[in-house]
Task: structure prediction
Amino acid sequence: MDEYVDILDRQGRYTGKVLLKSEAHAKGLFHPTIHVWLYTPDGKILLQKRAKTKLTFPGHWDVSVAGHMGAGERPEETAVRETEEELGIRISAARLHKAGVFSSVKKHSPELIDCEFHHVFACLLTSRTEDLRLQETEVEEVRLFGIDDVLRHLRSPSSSGRFVIQPDPYYKEVFSFLTRLIDQKASS
Result:
């Protein structure tokens, strides 16, 4: 679905411009997105397998929830909305833990250049995976993985065809953040 997004400069600052997402991608302009990593108290993280019909990374394993921020939308609003849309579960903004903001540039084709600032959150998964209602146009499947298993997959040379790959600093910071949250949950 094409939607209006805010345009950012290379430092992630709002420019005051708003364009359709397709225009931002065609021109390689930065815009904000969200990632939500859902985790369990026993140290698992939920990954989604992107629908085979997706333009980018069809059939690849990816973060639990990802989406574009609509123009004027706050990151927490988008995280709540996208989680409900993609997985059919309601979370509150109060349950989100912000891991940071990460810049990403991926050139898929001359007409599709993703220049994004990902606002990354973590949230405790309180639903069973079999109770999730997957948005068929976005998500083919979900599965729980151990963080070490995900890291092993990502380091494997064959992972580029099966996982959406982010830069190493992204995984290092996000997985360290998730591990701290899991450890806090286990000790409380």
The chain has one domain: 4-187. Helices lie at 21-27, 75-87, 147-155, 168-187. The domain at 4-187 is CATH 3.90.79.10 (Nucleoside Triphosphate Pyrophosphohydrolase). The chain has four helices and nine strands.
